[in-house]
Write a structure and sequence with these properties.
The chain is mainly alpha-helical and 605 residues long. The protein contains 27 helices and seven strands. About 3% of the residues have low confidence.
């Protein structure tokens, strides 16, 4: 076995066990580790050693003292443990386990109980009879179902033990009590060996009386007394069909909700009951979805959420939904939430399913993936219309193709959606989501609108978030967002396009400084200068000079916002009527001395 580090390996994985007076590691599996608990018990059972079997009993008793059985509980492990204990003559440990099973409402097989009686009779352990009878009584009260021949077998074993007539009468009284009241007509019926009479009761009474709470009570009684799996399956299908037929009527109310409350709230449900309610709920939801009864479908989903039933890992019980993919089931549920105006509900059910589309255990087809695509696009647009940008981004991140490469979806098609999100964030000055969206797009090689990327760089710089601004500027250069820095960076000449913002201009100057760092010191003793030319755009004619003059002001501002400040000196205007500046070497040298440590790492690429 491979155990998490928090568990004591001496206790769980050696015959001798843990001998520490005070052990810092766990000797009982934690809640949520039922799978580990079952694996440990299986291992001890397979070794067949008496000491380990006793330890298995300790683990079982202590674990289920705090925890109720979940999806990883194995009835086979329980039965095997009891049989192994009997084979090793550990009868009192058997009683310990049986008492726990009564408390957690998870009973062993009838055959195992018969073997306990046989063991006590064959070894003539008369001292154990009172405990045996008491335990038997508890098991019956907890819902263990016996055929009449089982009672006869038990009575024969007790006769072999020559027990008192009082003890025999106790078993006979239990046998005679094995009747139940018809919940609807108050007639007395003998419990049948199959579930057929329960099914007939469902069909004849519930459809006529529409008493869905009583249907839930009837299901509990039937499940308790139904030993045959096939009969229980028939009963479950019958109830599911009755509940789904409500979609064919216009009557108010949702029968499923009353039924689910009766099973889960008004009884002590086991995991099988919760799975049954979940699967039935899926079938009922499908029936309402088919006839566009969105409000009733929503009530079904709200009830499953209220009862904390994780239906997204289940399949339907009747009809096509029995074969439906997980993706399709989640799509239907999310669509119902959308149709009833609940964006949070749609997102909840998608999160609950971990946004799964196609997976080895949950295969789906192209139609399901297309439906998911359309669903998420609609959901994202609705979030954007309500200015809920973080929620919209979460939805977009989980479009088909991102989480699962087997979806065979070209994610480049999502460029427009992400750019719409970034643009909407700009309008509301939400830099956090904008930055996260750009990071995601860069990681997935999704085309970014260069205008938006430049806007983000400028906004980050103006908000003094220079580290982020430099990161995106560097990415923008590699993507071709900017023309190659004209001039010769390593030969003291920089040409800056006049359409850049002051933030972009400063970042271009930083690269220029770092590229010439080794020469700036030597320039201090020469007459050479660092020159910057502010290039005109094609539409910036001499006659229309206002845009160019605004660019001049941005260049001056870029030098001023630098830390430390840089100083530019106007030199001349070239033949293209472009301003030429020299960068004062003293300020350049000071800038490098204070910033070269980080700037070299950022800009030397």
């Amino acid at each position: 076995m491979e155990l998490p580090r928090k568990y004591c390996k001496f206790y769980f994985m050696t015959l001798r066990g843990c001998e520490r007076a005070k052990c810092w590691f766990l000797h009982v599996p934690e809640q949520g580790d039922e799978k580990i608990c079952m694996a440990i018990l299986r291992t001890y059972i397979s070794v067949k050693e008496s000491g380990l079997l006793k330890r298995a009993v300790q683990i079982f008793v202590k674990y289920y003292r705090e925890v109720t059985p979940g999806v990883d509980f194995s009835s086979q492990v329980l039965n095997d443990l009891l049989i192994s204990l009997l084979k090793n003559c550990l009868l009192w440990e058997v009683f310990q386990i049986l008492n726990v099973t009564v408390r957690i409402n998870t009973l062993p097989a009838v055959d195992v109980l018969l073997k306990v009686f046989e063991h006590v009779a064959s070894l003539n352990i008369r001292d154990a009879v009172p405990t045996l009878i008491s335990t038997f009584y508890k098991l019956i009260d907890a819902g263990m179902f016996l055929e009449l021949e089982h009672f006869d077998c038990i009575i024969n074993f007790l006769h072999k033990l020559q027990v008192s007539s009082q003890e025999i009468n106790t078993v006979l009284s239990i046998k005679s009590r094995y009747v139940f009241k018809d919940l609807f007509y108050n007639d007395i019926y003998l419990v049948p060996s199959s579930g057929s009479s329960f099914i007939n009761l469902c069909k004849t009474h519930c459809k006529e009386k529409s008493d869905w709470t009583k249907l839930g009570a009837l299901y509990i009684s039937a499940r308790t007394g139904c030993e045959c799996f096939d009969d229980l399956e028939k009963l479950s299908l019958c109830i599911a069909k009755i509940l789904t037929r409500d979609s064919e009527t216009d009557r108010p109310g949702v029968p499923f909700c009353d039924f689910a409350d009766a099973v889960i709230k008004n009884s002590q449900p086991n995991e099988a009951d919760r799975i049954f309610i979940g699967r039935t709920g899926i079938s009922v939801m499908y029936s309402y979805h088919k006839v566009l009864q969105w409000t009733k479908g929503r009530k079904v989903l709200d009830k499953l959420h209220e009862l904390q039933i994780h239906f997204t890992v289940l399949k339907g019980l009747t009809g096509a939904e029995r074969l439906a993919s997980r993706c399709q089931i989640v799509n239907k549920a999310a669509e119902i939430f959308l149709k009833t105006g609940s964006l949070d509900g749609a997102t909840w059910v998608l999160r609950e399913s971990e946004w799964t589309t196609n997976a080895p255990l949950w295969p789906c087809n192209k139609v399901d993936i297309l439906s998911r695509h359309n669903l998420l696009c609609t959901l994202a647009r609705k979030y954007l219309s309500r200015s809920l940008y973080r929620q919209a981004f979460e939805v977009l991140q989980n479009l088909p193709g991102f989480q699962n490469h087997s979806d065979t979806v070209d994610v480049s098609q999502y460029s427009c959606l992400f750019n719409k999100l970034i643009n909407a964030c700009f309008e509301r000055k939400n830099l956090g989501v904008s930055s996260s969206a750009v990071d995601f797009m860069l990681s997935k090689n999704i085309a970014i609108d260069f205008f938006l990327l430049r806007g983000l760089i400028t906004a980050l710089g103006r908000s003094s978030l220079w580290s982020k601004a430099r990161t995106y500027y560097k990415s923008a250069l590699s993507l071709g967002c900017y023309p190659l820095l004209q001039g010769n960076l390593c030969h003291k000449l920089l040409m800056i396009p006049s359409y850049l913002s002051e933030v972009e201009m400063l970042l271009a100057i930083e690269i220029f400084l770092v590229s010439n760092a080794s020469d700036i010191q030597s320039l201090m003793t020469t007459s050479q200068t660092l020159q910057i030319i502010l290039k005109r755009c094609e539409d910036q004619t001499v006659q229309n000079n206002s845009d160019y003059q605004a660019a001049v002001k941005r260049l001056i501002l870029a030098a001023r916002v630098s830390d430390p400040k840089l100083f530019l000196k106007h030199m001349t205007m070239n033949v293209n009527m472009e301003e030429v500046y020299s960068l004062e070497l003293t300020s350049a040298l000071k800038w490098l001395q204070e910033n070269m440590k980080w700037a070299g790492k950022v800009w030397l690429f």
